[in-house]
Amino acid sequence: MTTEQKTAYETERDTIEALQTARARIDGELRKVIVGQRDVVEQLLVCLMAGGHCLITGAPGLAKTLLVKSLAQIFHLEFQRIQFTPDLMPADITGTEILQERSDGNREMVFVRGPIFANVILADEINRTPPKTQAALLEAMQERQVTAAGVRHTLPSPFYVLATQNPIEMEGTYPLPEAQLDRFMLNVVVDYLPVEEEVDVVSRTTSVRPEPIEALFTEEEVLQFQEVVRRVPIAPDLVRYAVDLAVASRPVATSLDFVRQWVNWGAGLRAGQFLVLGAKARALLHGRAHVTYEDVRSLAAPTLRHRILLNYRAEAEGILTDRVIEMLLEQGPRYTVA
Predict the structure, then answer these.
(1) For 232-338, which CATH superfamily applies?
(2) Rounded distance, CA 167 to CA 127, Å?
(3) Which pLDDT value is given to residue 151?
(4) Strands 120-124 and 107-113
(5) Pair 266, 279: CB distance under 8 Å
(6) 0.70 exceeded by the pTM?
(7) Residue 28 half-sphere exposure, CB side, CA atoms within 13 Å?
(8) DSSP conformational letter for 268
(9) Mean pLDDT score of the chain
(10) pLDDT at residue 168 in the model
(11) Is there a contact between 128 and 169 (Cβ–Cβ < 8 Å)?
(12) Exposed e or buried b per residue across 230-243, where buried means at least 16 C-beta atoms within 10 angstroms of its C-beta
């Protein structure tokens, strides 16, 4: 092993050790302001570690904004919240050019950056703004850049979009198109807390103020985490299993009767990619340097639920997407350890 290879190995080992101990430290900071929601926290951490964007679905008042803001503070990332409304324009997000007078008396066009130029963007109620404004996020999410007057402006790195949706008040909303939904790595569902945990929340928030969140990492460390996640080994059979899950959700390619009956459109290529990448991040968060079968299965629902489109028959029979995913895991492709 050369000196350069040894140095790279030691750096990667140190980063893996930091990731393996990070979960307990993160949980400790989050417990200052967040009660419960362990699965939600884990799925958001998977997104952050893997460098993906996240769609968060939940009713109002379930601490979605507080959770995202707290995670940004823990990772010492610049945070911006954008409230999406019907009158929001693309320039309100990306920025715009203005005519500015210089010290010599001449004028020039200057680009004024919008709120999207931050590390963590909370797109609150993203489905309340028209498609033209929703589309302003597409280039930013995929290309990590903004184009204004033909000039490309690079967004900061790391860059995450975490968008929220209200599932109970759909009147006057603009559902996200499939192309944009597919760019979100996970669709995380935030549900109501158990009664005892809700009592704990009410007790805390009506007494003393919570302790301030402490930053545990830096931007550079977050980028290192993302690189290490991609180098986590995974068995070829597990990669095939992740791909087979996505393929089995497609009516034109599956042998499963319930998929052909209820599904109009199945998961695409990104589903397999994000299943594998998310499984790698989850493995490290659980203190392992290799991916297991459970890592893939545990991320099937958040990875597939916004990529499987049900038909009218499923709607008439009261079938939900999560039920289709459950049946897909039960009756779909099998993975056998060699």
Answers:
(1) Magnesium chelatase subunit I, C-Terminal domain (1.10.8.80)
(2) 10
(3) 77
(4) unpaired
(5) no
(6) yes
(7) 8
(8) -
(9) 83
(10) 66
(11) no
(12) eebebeeebbebbb
In which residue are the tokens 């967004």 written?
155
Q: How many residues does the chain have?
A: 338
- The HSE-up count of residue 323 (CA atoms within 13 Å, CB side) is 10
What is the share, in percent, of the chain residues with pLDDT greater than 90? Answer: 14
Q: Which residues contact 297 (CB under 8 A, 6 or more apart)?
A: 329
Task: Measure the CA–CA gap between 283 and 202, rounded to whole angstroms.
Answer: 34
Do residues 278 and 186 lie in contact, with contact meaning Cβ atoms separated by under 8 Å?
Answer: yes
pLDDT at residue 47 is higher than 80: yes
For the cut 80, the answer to whether the pLDDT of residue 205 exceeds it is no
Q: In the prediction, which pLDDT does 228 show?
A: 86
Indicate whether 20 pLDDT > 90: no
Q: Over the stretch 163-195, which tens digit does the pLDDT of each residue have?
A: 888 776 666 677 787 878 888 999 998 888 888
Question: Cα 60 to the chain's mean position, in Å?
Answer: 19
What CATH architecture is 1-87+115-231? 3-Layer(aba) Sandwich (3.40)
CA–CA separation, 162 and 184 (whole Å):
9
For the residues 36-62, what does the mean pLDDT come to?
A: 85
- Please check the confidence at residue 84 and state whether its pLDDT lies above 90: no
Q: Which residue spans of the chain are classified as CATH 3.40.50.300?
A: 1-87+115-231
Cα distances (Å, whole numbers) of residue 36 to 40, 43, 197, 218: 9, 13, 7, 26
* Amino acid 296: pLDDT: 92
12: left (phi over 0), alpha (psi -120 to 50) or beta: alpha
CB atoms inside a 10 Å sphere around CB 224? 18
**Domain boundaries for CATH 1.10.8.80 within the chain:** 232-338
Distance of CA 313 to the CA centre of its chain: 30
- What pLDDT band is residue 240 in, cutting at 50, 70 and 90? very high
| Distance in angstroms (rounded) separating the CA atoms of residues 322 and 147 | 37
Alpha-carbon separation of residue 109 from 96, 105, 136, 217, 316 (angstroms): 10, 13, 21, 38, 55
